[in-house]
Amino acid sequence: MRSVLRTPCACIAFCIIVPGSMSMLNVVRYHTKILGAYNATRRILSRQHLFTNAKTDVVRCNDASFKEYCSKLLLQKRPLKQANVVIRNYAAKPSSRNDKIVGSWLLTCGGMVFVAVALGGVTRLTESGLSMVTWKLLGEKMPLNEAQWVSEFERYKQFPEYKITNHSMTLEEFKRIWWMEYLHRTWGRLIGAVFVIPATYFWYKGMLKHGMKMRVVALGSLIGLQGLMGWYMVKSGLEDRFIEPSDVPRVSQYRLAAHLGLALLLYTGFLYNALDHLIPAQKLTANSSSTTITSNALKALKRFKGLIHSTKGLVFLTALSGAFVAGMDAGLIYNTFPKMADKWIPDDILAISPALRNFTENPATVQFDHRILGVTTIALITCLGILSRKHKLPGRGRKAVAAVLCAGYLQVLLGISTLLYHVPLSLAASHQSGSLILLSTIIWLCHELRYLGKFAK
């Protein structure tokens, strides 16, 4: 009897012909159950199609066969979906040959940016950044003989760093700092060439996806902006603004922080997109063999993912505050830890008026802020490591968490050692490179957990 009553017309006809056998209300209730099961099944199968990269076993069928299937499920009393339960599984799409080529190119560019940041740190630590007093888009001409070196040295003598700080510098000493700055600039231009030439080829050959094309344009713009910001930063140290006897010719700490911030953004963009091409994050699927988790557990996963992104932001901010420490030589004062001159908060932390300027122009406050940010960051990383044990992470997520923990504690150790030993070149350069290593690990972790907790109820 029920097999006949599967269409609205059949139900109405049955009620007219046999008015006493079944009330209209019962017929409507039964038909509503059939349509509800039909719609629920269609939603589940459509989700399976959306969230699965592999071929699915969904068979296309017409509405009649679909309703037949739903009716059988209803008659057999099989629940289509448990209450308050979400189905979750992971599947990764393998990288194609083009993806691997593009990913390797992006990873190479990212590695070159890493080296550029390290070279920039050494350039700042050796006070070599103001040795080249001119800037040209395609590069400065390298001195080839003694006369050209003397001419370059004479140009340098016209600017504040030589007049105030290096007035006793010899030509050989000048050559050493000039070569360091020249290497840094040349490496930056090489990054531009390694990026632009392959990008043009990949674009012409159609090897870049539509979304990747926009990101390539953005990354190229960042490279150009980074070069301009580098010269804008150097120019601030060549201006005649050092009047007070205690003034030391140096670049603006604001422009130095902007220069480093752009480099970190560029590095992040290269690394994340390279990982996306080489080792795609595992995606959520829904199928019969999936693991089931409650919606409360799903919310916990989303909170855990929020903690990861918060940690990433704090790592970035701490690295950026390091630019102010380097720009003001703030690491050369209060060389004790954890206290600052036997005090938790130094007396001169608010020595400048208005008070807001202390956070970017007072060396004591700048170092204090960097300490607080560093301690807060390692505390968040520790919490992240502890909470990660409560969740089943996809793919390489567990390894990425371990990498973040190792890089975080190594960075803290390098930072404290740099401070206690009065900023030696080797430790200070390692500390700056360590910040990039830590940023790399947290980017890797964010990439691995990209789809974590995104499957809706």
The best one-word shape is flat
- Rg, rounded, reads 31 Å
Number of DSSP-assigned strands: 3
Average pLDDT reading? 81
Taking pLDDT < 50 over at least 5 consecutive residues as the criterion, the unreliable ranges are: 1-8, 10-25, 40-62, 72-91, 286-291
Can you list the strand order of the major beta sheet?
A: 2-1-3
Helix coverage percent of residues?
Answer: 55-70%
Spell out the helices and strands N to C.
HHHEHHHHHHEEHHHHH
Q: Percent of residues in beta strands?
A: under 5%
Q: Please report the distance between the alpha carbons of the first and last residues.
A: 36 Å
Give a description of the structure.
The protein has 2 domains: 92-280, no CATH class; 290-456, no CATH class. The protein has 14 helices and 3 strands. The protein has helices at residues 8-17, 24-51, 63-75, 97-125, 146-156, 160-165, 171-204, 210-237, 253-278, 295-327, 358-361, 363-388, 397-420, 425-448; strands at 85-91, 283-285, 291-294. α9 (253-278) packs across α14 (425-448) and α10 (295-327) runs antiparallel to α12 (363-388). The radius of gyration is 31 Å and the shape is flat. The two termini are 36 Å apart. This is Cytochrome c oxidase assembly protein COX15 homolog. It comes from Temnothorax curvispinosus. Pathway: Porphyrin-containing compound metabolism; heme A biosynthesis; heme A from heme O: step 1/1.
